[in-house]
Amino acid sequence: MSDPKFFHPVRSLTAAEIAEFVGGTLASGDPETRIDAVAPIGDAGPGQLTFLDNPRYAPQLRETRAAICICAAKYAAMAPEGVAVIVAAAPYRASAQVVQALFPDATKLKGSFGNEGIHPSAVVDPSARLEAGVTVEPGAVIGPEVEIGSGTVVCANAVIGKGVRIGRDGYVGPGASVLYALVGNRVILHPGCRIGQDGFGFAMGPGGHLKVPQIGRVIIQDDVEIGANTTIDRGSNRDTIIGEGTKIDNAVQVGHNVVVGRHCVIVSQSGISGSTRLDDYVALGGQAGLSGHLHIGMGAQVAGNSGVADDIPAGERWMGSPAKPIRQFMKETRTLRKLAAAASGEKDSD
């Protein structure tokens, strides 16, 4: 059985070129050392680049066989002789820049089928307007009055509903559906995304639950990336909005009327209930859950597996369930541990 490689480097780079490219400094090693591949620090070998960003992997730097390593200045002396060491302020970001240069195909997503243009098996309504350079793969459906900008790829079996607008250089993954939505430029929707379906709205009562019509839209601004199988409900009486540059992981639920600010990060399995507002640069850890009608201030951070039921002021870090400021959470946790140890007659290790 063959062992296919899906991404191939388009060039090689020397240590000197990389240092200049990432704005770093060549601290040691031959500036002409050349790489055309990347690998984790413990697995890297000749011809490969690695990086050190997380201190827990620092011991592996002493044994690495990589040709080039990007790291912070404090780790530079740990590298074995013969490894070209590039010191950078943000090693992880610097390594990402190098990977983009080596493997540009992995940065700009292409269709799953590989064709360009409109495949004969795709269904494109005659009233849809597609700019030159749009790719529509087999089985995809483009509804009436849709508008799609040049360079956008609509992958196999995706569905774009009536009246949807999608900007330029975007990507709609296999099996995704986009309904009642306006989508900006350079937006990536990974496979299985569900954008613009009904929000969960019912007027509850003893005689049954009356469905509340969801008459809003989803607005996704430029440079947003949304992970596989994430769902974003359209608004009930106003728009659900995802702000410019925000990155949303796989399997996230965003309820109706939610407003997410610019450059937020929302990690896998988080859930945001209806009408909650996140200001710019908010970060939610995995499995964070937010109740409805909350306000999360600019730059606030919520730890993974936290349950948020109160507004969070700008810049604060909260954790726990129910979530609270991290210092308060840690203080209460230490107190409970001491009380439990005292009740059992054990000595607390804290």
UniProtKB/TrEMBL annotation:
Superkingdom field: Bacteria
Entry annotation: catalytic residues: 256 (proton acceptor)
Enzyme class of the recorded protein, top EC level: transferase
Reactions this protein catalyses: a UDP-3-O-[(3R)-3-hydroxyacyl]-alpha-D-glucosamine + a (3R)-hydroxyacyl-[ACP] = a UDP-2-N,3-O-bis[(3R)-3-hydroxyacyl]-alpha-D-glucosamine + holo-[ACP] + H(+)
Enzyme nomenclature, EC number: 2.3.1.191
CDD domains: LbH_LpxD
Keywords carried by this UniProt record: Acyltransferase, Lipid A biosynthesis, Lipid biosynthesis, Lipid metabolism, Repeat, Transferase
Record bears the keyword Cell inner membrane: no
UniProt similarity note: Belongs to the transferase hexapeptide repeat family. LpxD subfamily.
Protein name: UDP-3-O-acylglucosamine N-acyltransferase
Organism: Hartmannibacter diazotrophicus
